[in-house]
Batch of 2 targets.
Target 1
Amino acid sequence: MDTLTQSRRQIATKKSDQFDLIIIGGGPAGLASAIKAKQLNLDVLVIEKALFGGNLLNIAMINDYLGFPDQISGKELSVKIIEQFKSEKIDFKYEEVMQLNKDKSFEVITDKASYHSKAVIIASGTQNRKLSAVGEEKYYGRGVSYCAPCDAVFFKDKHVIVAGNNERAIKSAILLTNYCQKVSLFTVKTYLNISEDLKSDLKANKKIEIFLNHRIEEILGNESVEKFIIKNLENNKLFYYQAEAIFIYVGVLPENFFVPKGLSTSEKGYLDCDKEMQTAIPGLFVAGDIRNSFIKKVSTAIADGIIAASSAYHYLSLH
Ligand SMILES: Cc1cc2nc3c(=O)[nH]c(=O)nc-3n(C[C@H](O)[C@H](O)[C@H](O)COP(=O)(O)OP(=O)(O)OC[C@H]3O[C@@H](n4cnc5c(N)ncnc54)[C@H](O)[C@@H]3O)c2cc1C
């Protein structure tokens, strides 16, 4: 009897906190690896701290995803992927992973419980980088947002700000003009870091006003955001600026606080692995945006997830 068949037999009598494979994160990488692992007959648990779909929910329109020549919104694609995930009847928990230990097996400690498995895939992606403006935390959910597709609808016919100079910021500003009366784009940089195509879309959009070389210092309001204190970095003058929300797109950071100490990472904290998605700890795999990789896209996250699940299956069949 091979090891996998043995472990499958043990599942019949296993404790409810024991699995072949635990996947941390329910974004595209985590969901793809869960579906693949289930198809390989592994006993899988997915742990997601917030919403299944992850950053997919933050994408207005995806224009380079195979099979959708007319583009598809991140939300629509996530609905399809989550339906597929649900149809596989995979175990999942809405909990936050706080710590990951390895002794003989892995122990995954969440804010509510702890679970054990022989293999783990970390697919925890990225978190949004903060602007570090005064009031940012206070007004989160009351006019401070990191997700235009999720929150644009609450600011119909209002004047809002977008902070950032990257493609994600500009695409979000353009999306917001479908709802808002005016969108002001602020960046501390003196240039926009975007493609020529996007530059012409931006130029053609009369609802967007651009402020280069400006820093948002403070977010002010009462129940919700009402105005901002902004510094013109050219002359260092501060001024008040009225708008009812701010959408922040100033980059992302890896979600890695729970990973075992000593794992090799990039300078910014993205996890190193080999081409099978295996880290230096046997049985520990990574997939998606948390991985130290050059391209971070939905398609690469899904590919990583499938490779990681197949590698975990291979590892489990030998241990
Ligand atoms: C604004 C924006 C626009 C984008 N536009 C595009 C685009 O046009 N095209 C494209 O291909 N890609 C785009 N991307 C990138 C794409 O969203 C990511 O590459 C993809 O979502 C990565 O998937 P992932 O599963 O690795 O990580 P994520 O989508 O980040 O998912 C990680 C999941 O893990 C969960 N998690 C994190 N920590 C824990 C923990 N401790 N415990 C439990 N759960 C945890 C999170 O809640 C999240 O659901 C965009 C991203 C952003 C932010």
Note: The chain has a mean pLDDT of 94.
Target 2
Amino acid sequence: MKFASEFRDPKAAKGLLAEIARVAGQIGATREKPVHIMEICGGHTHSIFRYGLDKLIHEGVEFIHGPGCPVCVLPRARVDECIQIAEKPGVIFTTFGDAMRVPGTKKSLLQAKADGADIRMVYSPLDALELARRNPTREVVFFGLGFETTTPSTALAIQQAAREGLTNFSVFCNHITVPEPIKALLDDPHMCLDGFIGPGHVSMVIGIHPYDFIARDYGKPLVVAGFEPTDLLQSVLMVLTQVAEGRAEIENQYARVVPEHGNKVSLAAIADVYERRPSFEWRGLGEIDASGLRIRPHYAAFDAEEKFGVGYAGMRTEVEEVEGCACGAVMTGRMKPVQCPQFGKGCTPEMPLGALMVSSEGACAAYWQYGGARAAAE
Ligand code: SF4
């Protein structure tokens, strides 16, 4: 398959692994700890386990799995607020499938659907828009969730709804941004990171320059990477080479997809529809300044928080995370999934306790799917 098989070439992968071992060995001669590289994106975490890169890589490199899965970082309070909206009379609540099983305080959206709420899975916000056109007497709410990758499509749906004058369509906006949590991690004195693998899809929208502060202010390298095995191995090698040479730069391994300055059309739609929230709550990371987006006042008619008086527009309640759930520690690299006391016991993909076991991009689900189930049994 063109543009896929060449990035899975075993010979190329072996060559990269040998070069990684050489550079990691060179760095290892001057320090005791392995080089800690955080892959920010959940898609990269999934690829690392899928292709066994965590086992193939030289022992002088350790992957730290970052907070780049939007389902995983959604706090329980926001799931509760979704259910609050979905259970209102006359509402059709629409969501991507991966959010259906995220546990709230009392139940998930899937359980709320079983209890009678009209909750429907969609593949795009445009599906929700179509539902609103076909059901003019119902309120159709789209659960806008995700990083900069999905933010533009929600913005386009809101712009389209405004053009058509739809009055029964709104968005429960939970769109978040990548650079701010990276800054929060770098400001955490307990974090010990040597470099980053930057997200490919997000960077396709925002380009590579929003990461400049990581190299400039914190002296850490970041390499934007693709998702195939040789993409990831080449990116690890690029980070290691910077560490070995004492450089800290933002580099783009995924240049075949990621333009340096991002996608202008998407960025214009984002700028038109959203503004920054002063802060936004992240599961495991707490409140992070300017890390969430809300709908601008001139599109307030399409803002479900305003329409239903929930979330940041209503009375928010503090919700503690589940007792015994170590999602926060896993997402900040302080614990591996198998070290969580709940892994494979109180928490499995069939009965998830924490969000990292729900989403296919969650580190715990990836561990489980690619050998973790066996490790738990052992
Ligand atoms: S095993 Fe479950 S509870 Fe533990 S960190 Fe993973 S998702 Fe959270």
Note: Residues 183 and 214 are 8 Å apart (CA to CA).
